[in-house]
Amino acid sequence: MLDSHQHFWKVSRGDYRWMGAHVAPLLRDFGPGDLAPILSRNGVYRTILVQAAETEAETDFLLELAATTDYVAGVVGWLDLDAADFPEKLARYRANPAFVGLRPMLQCQEDDAFILRPRVLEHLQLVADEGVAFDILSFTRHLPHVLRALDRVPSLKAVVDHLSKPEIAAGTLDPWRDLIEEVAGFPNVHCKISGMVTEASANWSVDDFRPYVDHVFACFGEDRLMFGSNWPVATLAGSYEQVLNLSRTLVGPYVGRDGAAKIFEHNAARFYSVPVN
User: Fold this and answer.
1) CA pair distance 230, 196, nearest whole angstrom
2) DSSP string of 229-262?
3) Which fold has domain 2-272?
4) Cα–Cα distance list, 268 to 4, 19, 136, 192 (Å)
5) What is the pLDDT of residue 92?
6) pLDDT in tens, the chain (277 residues)
7) Alpha-carbon distance 197 to 168, whole Å?
8) Coil, strand or helix at 211
9) Are strands 2-6 and 46-50 parallel, antiparallel or unpaired?
10) Helix (H, G, I), strand (E, B) or coil at 3
11) Contact assessment for residue 180 and residue 216, using Cβ atoms and an 8 Å cutoff
12) What beta strand segments (E) does 7-98 contain?
């Protein structure tokens, strides 16, 4: 299996704006040595390492880890999409074969419509022209803006992280349901089955997630979905094993052996242009 979404961080680096007392169990370093035995126990042989801070220093930090960590297949980094020198920066980072994608952390922007800024749209077109993978980290409220950006740049090769974080704890489906269906109407857009347990209530059960996974399966199908653990963030609400088994249980009714291989390995490998086992 290929885990399409996991993180590492070193707290002393000091650029993780989201860290605080509300995520106290995460306020320690998480590195390759912490995850390796967990992957081995669960039959996961490679991962996509995703940025967790909005700095180029974070991207450099992750690329350094990837260079010495055999199981990291690629890094989704951060660059400032609204910076005048973005084209030069993208060209420089693309020269590193471990750099496989870009994530601007839309959910953390003060401006919910950040993705629609003129220079951001210009640079999104460059990202699309270069075939760089683009991770969309959003809440439901960002999806109308994402849809307008996709209208402007329909060739963007994108993936929605964490189902766009629907309101699972409240059991709310609308307006997320219609918006995610519209997003899925763009054939170059994929969706990660990830990040669900931290959006649910503390005493979550499998049934809490069924309406959401059923819907994204109907919208995206087995060719545009991929499993991601969101480790270690997910450990706030469940172990790696629990997250993996939850995803298997939820997609199991829809896929056979070949479909499962797509969701748990092949789709992410194709999307991020990394080798399969």
Assistant:
1) 9
2) --BTGGGGT--HHHHHHHHHHHHGGG--HHHHHI
3) TIM Barrel (3.20.20)
4) 6, 28, 15, 9
5) 97
6) 999 999 999 999 999 999 999 999 999 999 999 999 999 999 999 999 999 999 999 999 999 999 999 999 999 999 999 999 999 999 999 999 999 999 999 999 889 999 999 999 999 999 999 999 999 999 999 999 999 999 999 999 999 999 999 999 999 999 999 999 999 999 999 999 999 999 999 999 999 999 999 999 999 999 999 999 999 999 999 999 999 999 999 999 999 999 999 999 999 999 999 987 7
7) 9
8) helix
9) parallel
10) strand
11) yes
12) 46-50, 72-77
Tell me the two tokens of residue 70.
């055999």
Task: Kindly give the interhelix angle for 240-251 and 32-42, rounded to the nearest 10 degrees.
Answer: 40
Dihedral pair phi/psi, residue 103, rounded to 5°: -140, 120
Stated as kind and residue range, the H or E segment containing 134 is strand 133-136
Note whether 189 and 181 are within 8 A (CB).
Answer: no
Cβ proximity of 78 and 54 under 8 Å: yes
Report phi then psi at 39, rounded to 5: -60, -45
**Distance from C-alpha of 163 to C-alpha of 122, rounded to nearest angstrom:** 26
Rg (CA), the chain: 17
- pLDDT confidence of residue 276: 78
| Distance of alpha carbon 177 from alpha carbon 215, whole angstroms | 7
DSSP string spanning 83-97? Answer: STTHHHHHHHHHTST
* Burial zone of 189 (CB within 10 Å; 0-12 exposed, 13-18 middle, 19+ buried): buried
Whether 15 contacts 217, CB under 8 Å: no
Whole-Å CA distances, 270 to 95, 139, 233, 273: 19, 25, 25, 5
Report the distance separating Cα 120 and Cα 35, nearest Å.
Answer: 34
The answer, yes or no, to whether the previous bond of 166 is cis (omega within 30 of 0) is: no
| Entry pTM | 0.96
